[in-house]
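Figure 2 data, in text form.
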Amino acid sequence: MVNKRCSKNFPKRFQNETSIDSEGFPVYKRRDNGEYVVKSDINLDNRSVVPYNKTLLKTFQAHINVEWCNQDGSIKYLFKYINKGLDRATISLVQNTNSDNQDPNLDEIKAFYDCRYVSACEATWRIFAFDVPYRLPSVMRLAFHLPGEHQVIYGADDDIEDVLNKTTNASSMFTGWFECNKKYESTSHLTYSEFPTNFV
């Protein structure tokens, strides 16, 4: 509850049929059949029902909300949490001899030491020897551009001179393909789309 209102916008409104709102989210069918249950002296009807799946609730014996995913943004949101990356932790055990709880020899660099923790999902992935950079279908977008007009990515606060002088910004995969064809005769038979199968 936020300011005495549900942050998830419950109770929802009655709806004759399931539809999609302007942002691509589902608005579920909620019948106005007059039935309700009383909990803590509050009448709760179909407007207060959270989407659920009986089979999942019985199987896992847990509180599981189920939402219909109908847009790219929702899928990206879900997979962002599934594939969020490695869990990391920073920990330091120090015997404290000072009574004022302050360490005079505090090493800030050491304090920022990045410890690695292999999470359960990553451990399982590696135990079964799945490909770590796994994608299906494995599609790579190949850039085409005119000389000197390739894409350069930089931050808003970056100095433009530093950006232009970076060696990584001086070339692209497309120009690298041309350079490789000049250097190695064995690559001259590879088309641009075949190039990533032999070179990175």
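Caption note: The longest strand covers residues 37-39.
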